[in-house]
Amino acid sequence: MAALPVTAFSPDKKHSDRERWICIYPAYINSKKTIAGGRRVPKDKAVENPTYLEIKDVLTAAGGIKFGVENKLYPRETSKEVLYRGRIRVQLKDDNGKPLNPDFPTRESVMLHLCNMIPKLKTRQGKQGGEQGSHSTQSGAATKKKGKGRR
After folding, report:
1. Could you give the number of structural domains in the chain?
2. pLDDT surpassing 60 at residue 10
3. Which pTM does this prediction carry?
4. 53-106 tens-digit pLDDT
5. What is the DSSP letter of 122?
6. Do residues 28 and 111 make contact, with C-beta atoms less than 8 angstroms apart?
7. Tell me, what CATH number does 24's domain have?
8. Digit-coded pLDDT (tens) for 119-131
């Protein structure tokens, strides 16, 4: 995640400058976050614990979107783990102010697209199947245990 240096914002900058690109943190679309904690989409559309890698995969598959990944941590994030790191910068408009991709004219449209597509990723499909199988084995093992204190 090599990031180019970003300078201070100035209204004179063009839309193609990285400073004018929008920022998307995984917390913006995380269903486990509250609005006060940083979620920016409705809870029913949000995704459970998205990572910057999943966001990157979806944006790459969408095509026609220029973006960059930076090794930054969301300021309201309490955990400092690598899983929660990552900031995606996305260029929405060209220098004339027109959207680069007509499907994504606003930051909300990009975030809602991410919410729709992340659950369809192959990595997410595998996690759902694996979790269901592990729950059944754990519950079966728990019933066979004897209580503490028997002598």
Report:
1. 1
2. yes
3. 0.74
4. 999 999 999 988 889 999 999 999 888 888 889 999 999 888 888 988 889 999
5. H
6. yes
7. 3.30.56.30
8. 999 988 876 654 5
Using CB atoms within 10 A of its CB, is residue 62 exposed (0-12), middle (13-18) or buried (19+)? middle
Sheet containing strand 22-24, edge to edge, reads 22-24, 85-91, 66-73
Task: Mark 67-92 as b/e (b = at least 16 C-beta within 10 Å).
Answer: bbbbebbbeebeeeeeebbbbbbbbb
Higher per-residue confidence, 151 vs 51: 51
Which residue range forms the structural domain that includes residue 30? 18-123
Q: Say if 147 falls within a structural domain.
A: no
Sequence-ordered list of residues with C-beta below 8 angstroms from that of 69, at least 6 positions apart, any chain: 1, 3, 52, 56, 86, 87, 88, 89
Q: Where are the alpha helices (DSSP H) in the chain?
A: 52-62, 107-117, 122-144
